[in-house]
Task: structure prediction
Amino acid sequence: MSNFEKINGAFTLDLTLDEAQILINLAEQLLELLGEGDFFHHYYSSDPLAQLLAMPAEIVTPEDPVLLRLLPNAYADPEAASDFRRYTEPQLRGSKQRNLRLIREELTILVDENHGGVIENIDPDIWLKALNDLRIALSVRLEITEESFEKFEMMPDDEPAKSVHAVYYWLGWLQENLLESLT
Result:
């Protein structure tokens, strides 16, 4: 089973082929969601700073609940939220995409070259952020609540949703394991 370790100051991750493929699949799905759609309005602001930075006048608040959770509004007031989103969302979205692409690359190399095994010299900060984003996305889709684990344990093994819930709880275990190896 998967395991993060700190060896001589460097972090490693040991994964089976199936675990690596699950993470690749999840990363690709979230990358698609983060990059999908035209979230910019293609007209530019009269604000000189926005023009200098080639920033759009407005960024549409995501309708998808996963994106809304990953890229939340900072303010209840729609105008203030839109202004804040305009200055912060492109960088936040880009950061999430970079983290997911990096772990996907590391996982793909592992799968292509070793068919599972150890990824060496991982960046724990990037992995923590990417795992967190993956867990958030799954928690929204699965509508995770405080009672969800008990419901998961009561699901019959042939229930199709059980395996997806198992992946969600496995991601939580991975995060916990990485956090423990950091301390």
User: Anything to note?
Assistant: Residues 154 and 162 are 10 Å apart (CA to CA). Residues 3-37+90-182 form one domain. The longest helix spans residues 78-114. The two ends are 21 Å apart (CA to CA).
